[in-house]
Structure formats: structure tokens, C-alpha cells
Design goal:
Elements lengths: L3 H7 L11 E6 L2 E7 L19 H17 L5 E12 L8 E12 L2 E10 L2 E13 L1
Antiparallel strand pairs: 1-2, 2-4, 3-6, 4-5, 5-6
Length: about 140
């Protein structure tokens, strides 16, 4: 398992917009990472105070950041989020959950990569999508 310092060595995102806490597994075309959803996260002040739910858009951004970790390696390139298809949210993510990001490369075309991305909580799928990412050097 690799911690957030490892994550920061791979992608340029920083707090408060760094949405990956660590990497559990990494292979050439596949990565599993995670985010612990903290009840004190400021997002819950507005989404929603009486019924806190982690926003779907942040789940998708976490999946894109995970893809960036996989694609960038030790380069100084910048990952670009180019597109998103087939997004489905299947369950709520609540404070105290561990959100698991699983990203698998589907296709590579020069500096553009398509990935299949899945987010899970306790082995239950909470979101799925296909993401299009670019790499700017």
C-alpha cells in the first residue's frame, strides 16, 4: 500500500482538491486506490447538512485522479480530464465510508487514454463510468 505522499509524487493535485488518499494495488493497466470519507470534510457543510452525502461529481473526480496516478508514473506531465461517458451512480457514499477507486485502461491512442472506472464501498458498486484522459507534457 502506498500513502498520500506517493499520490502527490504522481499527480499535481493538492488539498483541498486531492481526492485520493492512497494506492492499494498498481499494475501496468490497472490501479486500485482509495479515499477515506471524513465526516469533518467541509463539503458536508453544504451537501447536505441534515443528510450528508458525498457528491457524485467528487467521486468521478477521484476516479479521474486515480487514472492520472496510473498514467503519469514519475513524469512531470499534467493529466487532463477530456470526457466522461456512461456515468451511473448506484448508491450513496456517506461520511465514514472508505471509497475504493478501481480504474482499468481500455484503450490508448497517442496521448489520449480511455479507462473504465468503478467506485465501490464495502465491495458494493456505488458508481461506474468511462473516462477520457489526456496527458499534457
Amino acid at each position: 500500500m502506498k500513502d498520500q505522499e506517493f499520490v502527490k509524487s504522481r499527480i499535481p493535485h493538492r488539498s483541498p482538491f486531492l481526492l485520493v488518499d492512497g494506492v492499494l494495488e498498481e499494475e501496468e493497466d490497472n490501479i486500485k486506490a482509495y479515499r477515506d470519507i471524513n465526516p469533518d470534510d467541509p463539503v458536508f457543510q453544504g451537501h447536505f447538512p441534515d443528510y450528508p452525502v458525498y457528491p457524485g461529481v467528487l467521486i468521478v473526480e477521484g476516479l479521474a485522479q486515480t487514472a492520472g496516478i496510473l498514467l503519469l508514473g514519475q513524469t512531470s506531465a499534467i493529466p487532463l480530464f477530456l470526457g466522461i461517458d456512461k456515468v451511473r451512480f448506484r448508491a450513496e457514499v456517506k461520511p465514514g465510508n472508505r471509497l475504493l477507486y478501481h480504474v482499468r485502461v481500455k484503450a490508448r491512442r497517442m496521448r489520449v487514454v480511455t479507462v473504465d472506472a468503478t467506485a465501490l464501498v464495502e465491495e458494493k458498486v456505488v458508481a461506474t463510468s468511462s473516462l477520457l484522459l489526456g496527458i499534457k507534457s
